[in-house]
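Journal club prep — side note

Before the paper discussion, L.F. wants everyone to see what a predicted structure for a comparable chain looks like in C-alpha cell form. Sequence:
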Amino acid sequence: MSGQFQDIARRVIRVEANALNLLADGLDDSFDRAVETLLNATGRVIISGMGKSGHIARKIAATFASTGTPAHFVHPAEASHGDLGMMAQGDVALVLSNSGETPELADLVAYTRRFAIPLIGVASRPGSTLLKQSDVALVLPPAEEACGSGIVPTTSTTMTLALGDALAVALMEHRAFTPENFREFHPGGKLGARLSKVRDLMHSGDALPLVVKTTQMGDALIEISQKGFGVVGVTQPDGTLLGIITDGDLRRHMEGLLNLSAADVMTVDPTTIGPDALAEEAVAIMNKRKITCLFVVDPQGPRTAQGLLHIHDCLRVGLG
C-alpha cells in the first residue's frame, strides 16, 4: 500500500503537465487576436462559464481585475434572469466551456451577437456552437482528463486556468503593470505589506530625531531620548542631512562626550533610502548592513530628511 497514492498523484500531475505543454505548443494567432480584443475593450471583460468552468471563470476574472484589466464574473444561468443587463457595448465577453455546447450559455452568447459585444470563446471542440459563434476562438488541445475515465473535469480545467493566466499576464506586461500598481489592488495582508512603500511606513514631521551639526551632545542626547528611535540625524542649518549618531557612535566617544558637538560624534554620509522605494527593499538594506533604521531622503533632490523608517515599523506589518 505504501506509495500507492503517490503513484496516482504523480500520474495525474504528469498527465496535466503534458497537456499544458500541448497547450503552449499549440498557441497561434488566435491568442494574439484575443489579447488585442481585450486591450481594445473600452468597458469590462465579462467572464462566464458553467459548473467547473464557472469556478475557473471566477478565478480568471479575479486575476484580470487584480492586474489592471477590469473584469467580473457573470453566472450564465443568472444572466438569463436579468444579469445580461450587466453587459454593455464596449465590453468583451470571455466564455469558457470544455464541450462548447453548454446549454446554459445560449442566452449569453446570443446577447453578445445581438449587441455586437466581442466574444472570445474557449473550448476543446473547434466545431462546437460556442467557437462557431465566437469572434475569437481559443481551442484547447485534445488531452485526456487526468481522472482516467474522462468524465471528471481535471486536465481541461487546468488548461483553461493556465490559458486565463496567460491572457492576464500578456495584458499586464503590455500595459507595463508594476508592483506599485499591483499594490493598489492588494492593500491588505502579507502581499500588501510586501508592496508597501517607505513613505507609507516612515515617521515624519515632529517625530523626526534631528539636530544641527553645532548642537552640543547634551542636547543631542535629549533629542535621542525624547524621540525614542535610539538615533539622531545631524543636519546643516538648511536641513541637509550630514550624518547620524547611533549607540555605537556614543560608545566610541564616551570620554568627554558632553564637551563635543554633534558634528564631532556623528557618522558621516549615512545610508538612506527614497520615499518611493518598497519597504521590503529597506528591510533588505537594514539586514545587510546590520542597522535598525534608515533616514528617508529624496534620491533626486536635496538630501533633506523627509522621514525615518525603523525596522520595528516593518516588522509590525509582517516584513522582516
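L.F.'s comment for the group: The first strand starts at residue 45 and ends at 49. Keep this in mind when we get to the figures.
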